[in-house]
Protein 1
Amino acid sequence: PIWKARKQILTTAIIFAIIGGIIGFLTPATYTASSTFLPQTAQAGGGLSGSLGGLASLAGINLNAPMAGGEIPPTMYAKVLGSEPFRKRVLDAKIWVGGDTLSYREYLKSQTSSGFGLGTIKEYTIGLPGKILGALASDKKEGEAGAVGGLQALSDDEYALHTAVSGKVKIDTDKKEGVVTITVVEGDPIVAAEVAKVTEEVLQEWIIEHKIKNAKAQYDFIERQFEAKQKEFYSIQEQLANYTDRNQNVLAASYLTRLDRLQAEFDLVNTVYSELAKQKEQAAIQLSKDTPTFSVIDPVAVPKEKTGPKKSLYLLGGFILGFFLTAGYTLIKKPVTSFLTSLQADPQP
């Protein structure tokens, strides 16, 4: 049957190929921008030691804990991209488009609202049943979404933007070498490069924040203690100086006793103050050591060549689809027709 219907099959396949070519021609061109870098982190130190351990532990901070507890391995960067807070940062990042500065969120919204092309045609033809079902489902759930237990559901528009980021931005990690590659696919080559650059910056900021979280908490704690002790040190220093100036020619035992007490208090505060100053310097050094750096191997560049769509694939796909649909129809047409005829010929009981 297939050989007899070869002309019909070939004609249909050619028609489908033409349709595929038209779709490929109408599909907007895309450009891919990328950035490749290598994260470099210092080895975790043994923490800060000294006389502040007990005091810090009362505040819930362990000065002897390793500093690298918040490190995110490169293999988890793709998971970071999939997180809602990270995608919000990418959407809020500023990019330069057509002489204006706007957020990536605003750019995506403008592209969605201004385009009535192949995507719109697909939405209201092939995607019409799904669109109707989605509208009905949203009507049923209207009023159900909201803040529950401190959690806020994304609106439909915001969810669509997050989905768009997931489809356009990719992060891949070479597990063997540890090299991280960010790729962005956009219809405008400059926008693709801009988004790749801001994604790289947001990702590196995110990594640094989580990497130095513990070290930053330790530094902040020591700095607060240092500032408080500094005020106390200056106060007792002024008291000792004023008391000595007022009683330069006094040799009474009460004066000497008071002077000894002030001097002992000053020595004690001075010792703690000096120790805190050392601890603060150590914490600052440790914070600097724990801050990761990034060696950019292949920086972002504006792409010159289109990466899609592959029109030849649309032609080939249309031809194959048309061929198999027509061939399948030819094979099942006669058995199905015979079956339906037999049903109609059966006498009614």
Protein 2
Amino acid sequence: MYQESRFNPRARSGAGARGLLQVMPATAREMGFHSVDTTERGIAAGVKYLDHVRQQFPENLPVLDRMWFTLAAYKAGSGHVRAAIKLAKEQG
């Protein structure tokens, strides 16, 4: 929350992300939330999305790797993280 909004529940990014966890309105809807206008809904939507992102990485990854990949994907998108993993493997 600090990284995303500096703990400001009314934070809004230039791209339209909102709330403490800076969830995009479309992402909130995909997670089953009509809006993130309250602190509680914003946190719930962000945590649900974080879990959704985490599930996109193999369960057999070491816990720390999966955690870092999840956090990176929350910020940059899982496609970018998967591309970075692929590139790292290709480059040894």
Protein 3
Amino acid sequence: MSFVSRTPEGHYRANWREPSGRQKAKTFPTKAEAKRFLAEIDAGLSRGLYVDPHAGRLLFATHARQWLDSRNDELTTKARDASIMETHVIPQWGTWQLSKIDHLSIQKWITELGTHRSAATVAEAHRLTSAVLRSAVRNRLIAFNPCEGIRLPRRRRHDTADQVISREDLRSKLLPATPHRYRAIIATAAGAGLRWGEAAGLRLDALDFQRARLSVIRTVVEVGGHTSFKPYPKSSAGRRTVPLPRWLLPIISEHLDRYPVPAEAPVYANAVAKPLRRTLFRSRVWRPALVRAGMLGALTVIDDNTVRASWTDSNGATLTKEFVTEREAVVHIAKSSAPGPRFHDLRHSYATWLVDDGVPVNMVQRVMGHERSSTTLDLYTRRTDDHSRILQALDDGDDLC
């Protein structure tokens, strides 16, 4: 039962009993305020939505770290979310009491964050903030989630997003420009549509040369610079069998002859038979190979002692610099140039080739390891730019009188 009593100091105390039976009280300067407060408490109690008005004093950082520790996520997901939480969310909301965080403050933060961070980063920061506050609602610490209804910046596609590498450029430019030890992993990712972790985690038991196919049954994950095998792919649909094109088989065979590995090691291992690290591969192998292939920046030999490097930075400005050796120029472009094709674009290119060649979407979905065909349709059918197929469908190739 709730009631209002007067204190010796002349204030008014709202008294009520929690569902647990514990007596609670809160003091107000006027009787009207105390009655309004008790009306809200009684309404929450009757609807089963009671929230202790003192619970919201808990700091956001305290509940956020409890929430992170309680989750049962993959190592990579845990590492990603912890990084975003500590980099963007905790610095903003960590010292705030949960009950003091309001919708307007969050919207102002999201808008300001969007001025210097990508839309994807802003969306992730909002997702984690909302998840923590949603957990606070479920634990009866606050009455509602102030993250609901927040407007996020739009994710806009840039001209560098999801670039398609042609089959001709792959085989005549990129592969010859790649150091021999790493040529096969690039060829396999492009020829079988594998994700990085699937290609880096490929073992001998997953290869079937007689039937010209490979099985995706495990991946490699990298957290904090350490790699480990995960005995299953990204999703249930990710466990799949993929046919290998004729041109890819001799590349894999030659790699195994030149760089033999024990059965428990990945096919595409580093010099000590351990899985390749994605971050190092990108900076030391992938981007320099793009430069040498003419797919990122440009190299111009001036004379025996001068090589001119040209590249476009992230702001769209074209820059040049001269170096004594080609190696120095390649390293500089790889480090300084705006993002070019990514390793993951090999997988995008694979799917686009299949769609362009008229392979049914359900078959593309299966070899890509997508859970839903809508994912395949949304990602790849809009990306094809083979106009000859459109003209053929319109009979534009025929001579008309």
